[in-house]
Design brief:
Elements (H helix, E strand, L loop, with lengths): L1 E4 L4 H12 L4 E5 L2 H10 L10 E5 L5 H15 L4 E4 L15 H28 L5 E6 L12 H21 L4 E9 L1 E2 L4 H5 L1 E2 L5 E2 L4 E2 H13 L8 E5 L10
Parallel strand pairs: 1-2, 1-4, 2-3, 4-5, 5-6, 6-11, 7-10
Antiparallel strand pairs: 8-9
Helix pairs in contact: 1-7, 3-4, 4-5
Keywords: Oxidoreductase
Organism: Streptomyces lydicus
Family: Belongs to the short-chain dehydrogenases/reductases (SDR) family.
Length: about 250
Amino acid sequence: MALVTGAGSGIGRAVARALAEAGWTLALAGRRAEALAETSRLMGLTRPDSPAVLTVPTDVTRPEQVDALFAAVRDRFGRLDVLFNNAGTFGKAGPLEELGHEDWRAVVDVNLTGAFLCAQAAFRVMKDQDPQGGRIINNGSISAHAPRPHSIAYTATKHAVTGLTKSLSLDGRPYRIACGQIDIGNAATEMTGRMQSGILQANGQMASEPVMDAADVARTVVHMAELPLEANVQFATVLATNMPYIGRG
């Protein structure tokens, strides 16, 4: 079975739907219960409490809520095979010198601390279950490689996710826990609407950017999830073909 965080919208919702179509049993986590219920409906389930899906409203920045999420998964399904560690936020964009401490913390708490808390909880379950092992797939970003202007908090956390992925991969080896990362560029979601309307470029100009269907990302996550534990996609980059990434700046 698979757990998807940030499953109430965007990439998380697209991945949940793709995993369901591939026959996976799922747990869906996100802050808004109504959004999780809508994801369940779009997966073709008439009830969010269907035996094939568990919905758990969760704030990944709260350790006690993360612990409750993974306890609920273990109690319902008995094991966890895949975590798609997806919950994240862009945060407030603006000049570095104007970024407030609380704005910085808000991004770090979700993108880095939340990802760590979920990975740690998944690691504990996967290490202790029988058969032992599982897979963690972290949602990185193109910004794990190259920044956009006025994105220091988001960019720093996504670079840190890469370190998280590498450490999880190394520490998971003795326990058959694989960890990989998918770096996504300009998937069409609620969070990326500004890409098409015009966004600041490294040369100081505003430009509209191409986007891709989030379902194209979801297919890659399903592929990563379904590999045997003897194989791993360590890093995958999926992006809109013509987005300004190669040669950014």
